[in-house]
Amino acid sequence: MIATESLSKRFPRVTALDRLTMDIGPGVTGLVGANGAGKSTMIKILLGLSPATEGRAEVLGLDVATKGAEIRERVGYMPEHDCLPPDVSATEFVVHMARMSGLPPTAARERTADTLRHVGLYEERYRPIGGYSTGMKQRVKLAQALVHDPQLVFLDEPTNGLDPVGRDDMLDLIRRVHSDFGISVLVTSHLLGELERTCDHVVVIDGGKLLRSSSTTDFTQNTATLAIEVTDSDEHPDGTKALREAFAERGIETATGGELPGAGHTVLITAQGEETYDIVRDVVADLGLGLVRMEQRRHHIAEVFRPAEQPRATERAAAWAATAAAQQTGGPSDER
Length: 336
Known about the structure:
Layout: E1 2-11, E2 14-24, E3 28-32, H1 39-46, E4 54-59, E5 62-63, H2 68-74, E6 75-78, H3 90-100, H4 105-118, H5 134-146, E7 152-156, H6 164-181, E8 184-189, H7 192-198, E9 201-206, E10 209-215, H8 216-219, E11 222-230, H9 239-249, E12 255-256, E13 267-270, H10 274-287, E14 291-298, H11 301-328
Helix pairs in contact: 3-4, 4-5
């Protein structure tokens, strides 16, 4: 679907992409990185809207440097920022975008109705977009990216500005774009948990450099860690604390679940073999607690990404500090 080789994009004193080489196949792929990591720049290059400084890229087998218009006919694009006309209805706007994509009038109207139904806006399709909520506007942007039945869609930060319920709904829609219609998806986000839930493959970039590209399964492979959650009891109002203390008495080191959801009620230990499960069972029974769950823990993408990101974050901080110092002493500005 997408292939890049030594792809670079440089601005004065800023390198947005730095010799990026990757190969993305069909499915739902997440492009993850902090704000400013180069995600939006790469999408513009892949759409043929911005030339690369060096290297090459192909989308659907087409060279982005020479086949930009043909790529845009076969690819849908949902931009990050709000760019919708407030005084027209969703139907008018999406029909217009369908016509711009080459659909004849009747087909454009039919496809618009079907697409707005798919994204959950069918009942609101004749209202002016200016009166829509943020979540509804995001759905309009998704609809216009899908209306011409593309082979591939680029979704740039599609959950921006959404509340938790709205994010969940949008992620479900994205997953269905591929599962129901066979359209491949490249979705950018700086929220790692979203990609873990939604994507088949994840590409991590930072400072324009590729940190890692692999399947979500590989990112979240099993560890040797057991995650244990127990109930409280009258004798032990804080069952988690009692469990940690009991393990400590047996010389078993424990850890908490860090910053992940439900971490405060989870005790982590390293499995040393099948006997570890027997030890956990005996300790929980001796304390008179109920065992809610005991499972082999999987990595989360956030845990894999954070250690790799830290050195790059330090480099960025040093670069920003140097730029600020240069400006304070009369050095050239970075404004462009």
